[in-house]
Design brief:
single chain; alpha/beta; 2 domains; eight-stranded mixed β-sheet; five-stranded parallel β-sheet; 19 strands; 31% helix; 23% strand
Length: 421
């Protein structure tokens, strides 16, 4: 899934850390996403990576102590004016402490002090340096001043110590920065439950019944929601590979687990929700936003009536095998959908009756909207593109054919119209 940052401009700060080389990968991710990338480096950073490397990656001149110019915009005042966000990765303990005190004694800290937009830092330092009470206090001060702090990893560090201090993965830093650029007020901090993948109904310890669902549409929807600032709970049978690790993910197997966890997730999502129409406009931010459920999972309609322990032997089953099935509980119909907006997904292969079947979910199962997808055959599953019609009781909106992340953005644009929150 390719995040689109076309039209966005990122200022990347690099400080003196052994992980400075990873900033090259980060710059590459921003460029690949279509963003303009500008780089500022401390003198210490240049000991690990050359400015020329970043110029080659970004096709923009790099701001350093030596290259600063007042006859152009390559200086610590002007460079920030053309950037939407400033991410410092890696951020050394020295720089963390300087930033919190407003110290501007090098080109990067001067640029940070002059920057008026969103600031993010990704610390990378020895564990004890980060645990030092001065650094801990500095991080708290930066958080209070609206810096977004991307937590380091816990692993063996370059110095040989084991602990927290390794730079977060470039992909995680990229996702967090992209969220700062793409966040939308409607979705920001809104609790969302997304189900995805095809459930697996146990036959024995090595066999199960399932379907061709790849879970890609649900993953794309989760990523789009995350980038818009939503608080996402992802219930999936296919894992969360390729998604930000901060998306809360629960792995499930069968239809019963999907039902149980979905009920729990909805209950948690509704928790604390208030309705006070008379509340003053200045206090409305205290009300939790109405949550959403996106039911994307392909849930099995039937399961083996008598799942077996151990492995059934071929020699015991004979030349033919009759497997008795029983219906699974209808998840969408079973859920309490009060105080939550529900968007169902319906895949059909019947061109004559598929649309009517999708519309029926609005009345028969109480969905607020349905994303209808007409498939050609089983080869339609797992593709990188999809085509969806967004259906409500009032309208049918053809969203066209697009890659699944772009299509997710379109779905969320329509879904936002369901709520007046």
């Amino acid at each position: 899934m390719q995040v689109n940052l076309t039209g966005k401009s990122v200022l990347l700060g690099v400080t003196g850390s052994i992980s400075a080389y990873k900033a090259c990968d980060l710059a590459r991710l921003f460029v690949k996403a279509g963003a303009q990338v500008h780089v500022v480096m401390t003198p210490s950073a240049e000991r690990f990576v050359t400015a020329l490397t970043f110029e080659a990656l970004t096709r923009n001149p790099v701001l350093t102590e030596k290259t600063e110019s007042w006859s152009s915009d390559l200086n610590h005042i002007e460079i920030g004016k053309k950037c939407d966000v400033f991410i410092i990765a890696p951020t050394s303990a020295n720089t963390i402490n300087k930033l919190s005190k407003g110290i501007a004694d090098n080109i990067l800290t001067q640029t940070a002090l002059a920057f008026a937009g969103t600031m993010l830092i990704a610390p990378a330092a020895n564990t004890q340096m980060l645990k030092n009470h001065y650094t801990v206090g500095s991080l708290k001060m930066l958080a209070v001043n609206d810096y977004i702090i991307i937590e380091p990893q816990e692993k063996r560090l370059a110095c040989g110590d084991v602990g927290s201090g390794a730079l977060a993965e470039p992909s995680e830093i990229f996702f967090e920065t992209a969220k700062a650029l793409l966040s939308e007020p409607f979705w920001e901090d809104r609790r969302i439950v997304v189900t995805g993948g095809g459930t697996r109904e146990k036959i024995d310890e090595v066999r199960y019944l399932s379907n061709f669902s790849s879970g890609k549409m649900a993953k794309a929807l989760c990523l789009s929601l995350y980038l818009k600032g939503a608080d996402v709970c992802f219930l999936t049978t296919v894992g969360n590979e390729g998604l930000p690790q901060s998306i809360y993910t629960i792995e499930v197997d069968d239809a019963q687990e999907m039902l149980d966890y979905t009920k729990d997730a909805i209950r948690v999502s509704k928790k604390g929700k208030m309705s006070k129409p008379s509340m003053n406009a200045s206090d409305r931010h205290l009300i939790q936003k109405e949550p959403y459920l996106f039911m994307v999972a392909a849930v099995s309609d039937f399961r083996p009536k008598f799942p077996q322990e151990g492995k059934l032997k071929k020699s015991m089953l004979g030349e033919s095998w009759s497997l008795e099935l029983t219906q699974t509980e209808d998840i969408l119909a079973s859920l309490d959908k009060t105080d939550i907006k529900t968007v169902a997904f319906k895949a059909e292969m019947d061109s004559q009756n598929g649309l009517a079947s999708a519309k029926a979910l609005l009345t028969q199962k109480g969905a607020d909207a349905v994303c209808y997808n007409l498939l050609d055959n089983s080869q339609s599953f797992g593709t990188e593109e999809n085509e969806v019609t967004f259906i409500t009781t009032a309208s049918e909106t053809a969203l066209g054919k697009a890659d699944k992340l772009t299509l997710s953005d379109k779905i969320l644009s329509e879904a936002a119209k369901l709520s007046h929150a």
